[in-house]
Design brief:
The structure holds 2 protein chains of 2 kinds. By secondary structure, chain A is mostly beta strands. Chain A has no helices and 11 strands. In chain B, the strands form 2 sheets. In chain B, strands 2, 4, 5, 6, 9, 10 and 11 form a 7-stranded mixed β-sheet that branches. In chain B, strands 1-3-8-7 form a 4-stranded antiparallel β-sheet, with no helix packed on it. In chain B, a hairpin with a 2-residue loop joins strand 5 and strand 6. By secondary structure, chain B is an all-beta fold. The chains are: A mainly beta, B mainly beta. Chain A binds chain B through residues 31-32, 34, 41-46, 49, 87, 89, 91, 93, 96-99, 101-104, and chain B through 33, 41-43, 45, 48, 50, 55-56, 88, 90, 97-107, 109.
Chain lengths: 111, 113
């Protein structure tokens, strides 16, 4: 089983829709979780950090389910500009913390 | 200043060339990272520096040689690369290497001919 798994999509939704992605992780000791957004040919940009049960920022909500070992990202009222790849990152502790990326979920918001 | 800068933006080099990629941050972060990213794939961790010491090398070939001259700077020296090394090379920094959020530079797009 991969350490961090994401459905690659693409998720194709109309403007104004609500869309949710999940990210499952294998290391039950993980304490921090991150969602990044990456546009084509650009660098990943931090979208949300999750250290406890969840986090909310405007139209974006991230929730952590420790029992089932997944984090979700909910986007409400989708905009065309939300089209991007959403990367889930879970730092895994071995001797040091190793940032472990999911493969990313592609979102396309259409008019 | 919450920015990570990288130079050059683009680099084309032959297989016999030696070149260097540079990364700089002034956020007081003590962990810095090099990643390689191919199209439609997530970033792939190469190296981690923590307090200016190399703490993680993800079995990267020796033709890639990292260097951390001080807490703000990170270099990646390239020598005798192969065409399959063509990729986007991303630098990132974080407060420390304890699982904190990372901030990425814009990357260097490298083409090896």
């Amino acid at each position: 089983r991969k350490e961090v798994e994401q459905d690659p999509g693409p998720f194709n939704v109309p403007e104004g829709a609500t869309v949710a992605f999940n990210c499952t992780y294998s290391n039950s000791a993980s304490q921090s979780f991150f969602w990044y957004r990456q546009d084509c040919r650009k660098e990943p940009k931090l979208l949300m950090s999750v250290y406890s049960s969840g986090n909310e920022d405007g139209r974006f909500t991230a929730q952590l389910n420790r029992a089932s070992q997944y984090i979700s990202l909910l986007i409400r009222d989708s905009k065309l500009s939300d089209s991007a790849t959403y990367l889930c990152v879970v730092p895994n502790k071995g001797g040091s913390y190793i940032p472990t990326f999911g493969r990313g979920t592609s979102l396309i918001v259409h008019p | 200043d919450t920015e990570v800068t990288q130079t050059p933006k683009h680099l084309v080099m032959g297989m016999t060339n030696k070149k260097s990629l540079k990364c700089e941050q002034h956020m007081g972060h003590r962990a810095m990272y090099w990643y390689k990213q191919k199209a439609k794939k997530p970033p792939e961790l190469m190296f981690v520096y923590s307090y200016e010491k190399l703490s993680i090398n993800e079995s990267v070939p020796s033709r890639f040689s990292p260097e951390c001259p001080n807490s703000s700077l990170l270099n990646l020296h390239l020598h005798a690369l192969q065409p399959e090394d063509s990729a986007l090379y991303l630098c990132a920094s974080s407060q420390d290497n304890q699982g904190n959020e990372q901030f990425f530079g814009p990357g260097t797009r490298l083409t090896v001919l």
